[in-house]
Model the fold of this input.
Amino acid sequence: MDKDILDTDLIKTSQFDYNLPEELIAQKPLESRDTSRLMVLDKNTGTIEHKHFYDLIDYLEEGDCLILNDSRVLPARIYGEKKDTGAIVEFLLLNQIDINKWEVLVKPGKKAKPESEFIFNDGILECKVIDVKEDGNRIIQFKDTHNFFEKLEKIGQMPLPPYIKEKLNDKERYQTVYAKDIGSAAAPTAGLHFTKDLLEKIKEKGVNIGFVTLHVGLGTFRPVKVENILNHHMHSEHYIIKKDTEEIIRKTKEIGKRVIAVGTTSCRTLESVASKFGQVIESEGWTDIFIHPGYKFKAIDGLITNFHLPESTLIMLVSAFAGYKNTMNAYDKAVENKYRFFSFGDAMFIK
Done:
């Protein structure tokens, strides 16, 4: 593959492929979050350093700011027993439509026809299927939604990505230590490397920390199925930026310091709002921004991210920020040096 290709020629999905041995896909988190490896990539020179995540603090300067996504993952996989037959059906909660209605994926679908009723964990929750959408997703209605999310925390399982085959013993390891606002179908994984202690040390250095909320949808796992990436349509995700984060970013820009997004979700949130309003301001809405080579960044100066799937929109975003040649070379080096990949894998800081 020609890695000196111009960004304007980067329209083929296959240009974002790379060879990844299966054994490099991390199946479980490390015992200590911040001991993950950290590749530091200079986007201007292409130089690479191999560090550990706790070394991140050495690359941050007083006056910089980190912007983190505080969305909390919904333990959205639950198993229901069909009332009339006792058949066990898997439900994956996708979107909350109103207080007691959800759009869900079900397996096997033939067991969940309209008017079917299900009971979960001896009656902690009950639901009825009320509609089947064209794509096969079901609309279900829960009987009693009092303390619904507390009940879900008790009985639900984390909707881990399909490439993770091992069972996760501690559900909190698929949450960031600052996760707050429940609603994601997948973790904003770049943030999984932070510990509370590391965040405190970063603050003590004079680095400001701000939060956005972007509820990560299952579309984050969907591969790009078209060969011309310009024909790919992104899924839409809900975001919130509050006033205090707007102020942190404004002050950082005023003193000429860096806004560093933690994760592609934080990046997409900031860039969506900056593209719409000309700067990052307090706002709430939906974004389907697709960032790929050729995009001109308007908000961020640095990016902390994990290593992403071949041919994914996420590696395209990284290529847009770091440069295609730098990105593909960094991925080759990560494979060569046996970095751990994907959700529970190692991290990259692009400066």
About this structure: The chain has six helices and 17 strands. The chain has two domains: 7-73+170-350, 77-155. The chain has a mean pLDDT of 93.
